[in-house]
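Case study B.
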Amino acid sequence: MDFKEVVNTRRAVNLFDPEKSVEQSILRELVETAASAPSGFNFQPWSLIVLEDKEEKLRLQKHAMDQPKVSQAPVCLILLADTQGWMAGNRFADRNFDEMVKTGAMREEKRDWFNNLCQSLYGTDRETGVAFACKNTSFFAMTLMLAARDMGLHTHPMDGFDKKGVKDEFNIPDRYWVSMLIALGYFPEGGHMPEPKWRKTYDEIFVNFNP
Amino acid sequence: MDFKEVVNTRRAVNLFDPEKSVEQSILRELVETAASAPSGFNFQPWSLIVLEDKEEKLRLQKHAMDQPKVSQAPVCLILLADTQGWMAGNRFADRNFDEMVKTGAMREEKRDWFNNLCQSLYGTDRETGVAFACKNTSFFAMTLMLAARDMGLHTHPMDGFDKKGVKDEFNIPDRYWVSMLIALGYFPEGGHMPEPKWRKTYDEIFVNFNP
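Model:
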């Protein structure tokens, strides 16, 4: 699909065809397309819990303001952002350094320098780790929502849930920030597609604090 | 451009043609395309400082590990994430509520209920406000990077900068989190385009903490 058409036809839809499941091969292609998103130093601090079973989706729904789309959508994703995804000792962070050395982008002797740089950028307090994790996980999530549209699917990203409830229910380790839920599936034939909502214009987005 | 081609040809490039500027009409179209990104309750807590003047870009570069691309790119964007973008009294948050009432998505009597909900989701501590701001600003930033590619441009998102230095230099109010810098411009003819970096596979992204 043309890029502009993908962007212009994406909506946060409230209806999903409960009879139309998302094939495993489609889900894999979608996630691996989303994984091409950039991230700070390529750390890719994103993980997914994929819920397809009705009972599991209902377990999530009760922590998500009982929104029906959580269980009506054939797939509901819990997006986890690893606040320690930059840290030496983290499986993917260590692999990332090794890959940089392998491609010649980094030298092995710079390992301590690099770890200290990341510590200063992402590890000075809890906020910087949360910002790192959420920022990059949203690059992944946004690419996933657009890729879904390109593949004929629709999505609905959700913030309305109890973070602690979801973490406890699904046994999620503390270092993850539950950054959002995304309902995923096919829009039902004959359903009413919502109109685009208002948006800030260029002049409203542009700021300048020069005295 | 086809969506998959946009995704597959996006790279964080280190080279920009310093002779090829970005027309104002292109920049406006780019930003307004990016602004179609979703956000929690449509709060759109993103703002941009747009630097095109060489002296201004050099003022930024000295806080960004002296990375040459900051001033070589014809445009360098400072992305600001409003940690209070959900809060009653915030200009755009108030407008957003009014727009919801206007379209029938919300009733005026629910104003206090809605403000309390947002307070519980985004205002319980500094972390939740930072997560809200960074998460949504990355939806905007990711759409901007892909839209840039669709329009023949390239980008480089940057984390390597001193947040406090940038805030002081550009007089940025405290409520904003400086979420990233993005260098924007045209890739030079004959330049060496980097290969895609390694990515986590579906099986590496998928997690399950069930006992």
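Chain B is about 45% helix and 15% strand. The remaining cases will be described in the next quarterly update.
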